[in-house]
């Protein structure tokens, strides 16, 4: 009986292949959306590992997180350098990383900081975090040294020793360049899969130096005359302000007390956020869009299964002779039921397996591209518990779908049997 069923499947190989492909593509979309959602969350969470607090001018916590860590948006205000120094001198603070944003280079963000950035900033899972590593060169030592993220170097084809010019303002729309004070590339960082890869890093002194004479927002006569660029290593005063700073505390128990001290700082209106809490708020904002995308994927899966059901029901009439042969060799009606149901479940199972295989093939194929060009780490990990649940739900839906043609085949085999007896 099974040999006849197998030959029947081979005889309908085009319909069977299309049914399996339909289920496979539906599974690919359903599980793929869940995988992208999970990896996007992990990628965001891994960007600032080991940083206890981020301090900036008072604004929304999500906005502070986005512009200070992910270079998205702009700061509403800056922090006075004196305020930063006072808070950095707090005995509860182990280290700080000041960051100053606002300039760009061919659309890539320029970040002014100190060498503590390369010493203390970590990324990756909190239990397995990594520090920044240099693929080539070293950290900046002079005012006009620059360290590039891996994507900047690769996409622009830069090498050590080349000179680059920064533009005043952020984004591709920044038109005014600090052409009189170019920077020399002295280091290129290894890929991290974080916004660090898309950033040009310079020293705070270098950033201050190129903005001398730009207090009005545009180049003054003093700046445009080239006098300030004559000595690139001249001593420059400390910056008047920075965009934000990252904080590492000596003890995790001091997080709330230091956060309260920042929020109640009397010098100016500041706020301190915990990156994990701010990310949770961000995911809450995004949850509606995520759920909508998952629902759409679920509907695609249902449509795929209904398409397979239609093909099976359409083919049942054509298989009436096949069932009559099975009955003639001794198969009972309930065995016909189990045979059709098993056949449908086999198609669904093969579709799920093919969908998972396609998903991992695409991940392996596009993983380097996503990491190099979009700083997005897509892991080749085993399915998560949620993905297993989605696959189980698909299989359960397949069982329900399989029962319909199986029941119809059962009724047809009974009817045909009675007709033969009459």
TrEMBL record:
It comes from the Bacteria. Residues 295-413 form the ABC3 transporter permease C-terminal domain. It is found in: Cell membrane. The keyword Cell inner membrane does not apply. It is a multi-pass membrane protein. Residues 17-261 form the MacB-like periplasmic core domain. Pfam families: FtsX, MacB_PCD. The chain crosses the membrane at residues 14-33, 292-316, 336-366, 386-407. Keywords: Cell membrane, Membrane, Transmembrane, Transmembrane helix. This is ABC transporter permease.
């Amino acid at each position: 009986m099974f040999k006849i069923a197998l030959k029947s499947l081979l005889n309908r190989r085009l319909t069977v292949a299309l049914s399996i492909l339909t289920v496979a593509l539906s599974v690919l979309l359903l599980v793929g959306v869940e995988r992208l959602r999970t990896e996007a969350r992990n990628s965001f969470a891994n960007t600032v590992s080991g940083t206890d607090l981020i301090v900036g001018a008072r604004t929304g916590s999500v906005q502070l997180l986005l512009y200070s860590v992910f270079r998205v948006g702009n700061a509403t205000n800056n922090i006075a350098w004196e305020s930063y120094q006072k808070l950095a001198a707090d005995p509860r603070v182990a280290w700080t990383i000041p960051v100053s944003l606002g300039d760009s280079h061919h659309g890539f963000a320029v970040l002014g900081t100190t060498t503590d950035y390369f010493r203390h900033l970590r990324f990756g899972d909190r239990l397995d975090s990594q520090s920044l590593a240099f693929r080539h060169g070293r950290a900046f030592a002079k005012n006009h040294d620059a360290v590039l993220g891996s994507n900047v170097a690769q996409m622009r084809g830069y090498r050590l020793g080349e000179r680059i010019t920064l533009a005043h303002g952020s984004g591709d729309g920044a038109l005014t360049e600090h052409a009189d004070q170019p920077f020399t590339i002295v280091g290129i960082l290894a890929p991290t899969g974080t916004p660090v890869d898309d950033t040009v890093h310079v020293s705070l002194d270098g950033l201050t130096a190129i903005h001398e004479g730009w207090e009005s927002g545009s180049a003054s006569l003093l700046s445009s005359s080239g006098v300030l660029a004559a000595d690139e290593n001249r001593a420059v005063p400390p910056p008047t302000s920075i965009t934000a700073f990252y904080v590492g505390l000596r003890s995790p128990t001091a997080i709330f007390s230091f956060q309260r001290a920042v929020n109640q700082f009397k010098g100016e209106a500041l706020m301190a956020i915990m990156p994990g809490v701010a990310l949770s708020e961000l995911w809450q904002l995004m949850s509606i869009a995520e759920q909508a995308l998952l629902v759409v994927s679920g509907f695609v899966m249902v449509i795929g299964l209904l398409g397979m059901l239609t093909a099976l029901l359409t083919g049942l009439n054509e298989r009436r002779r096949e069932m009559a042969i099975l009955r003639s060799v001794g198969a009972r009606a309930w065995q016909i039921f189990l045979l059709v149901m098993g056949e449908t479940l086999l198609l669904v199972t093969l579709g799920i397996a093919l969908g998972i295989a396609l998903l991992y093939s695409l991940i392996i194929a596009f993983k380097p591209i996503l990491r190099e060009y979009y700083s997005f780490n897509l892991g080749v990990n085993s399915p998560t518990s949620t993905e297993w649940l989605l696959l189980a739900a698909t299989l359960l839906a397949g069982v329900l779908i399989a029962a319909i043609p199986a029941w119809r085949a059962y009724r047809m085999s009974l009817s045909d049997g009675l007709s033969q007896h009459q």
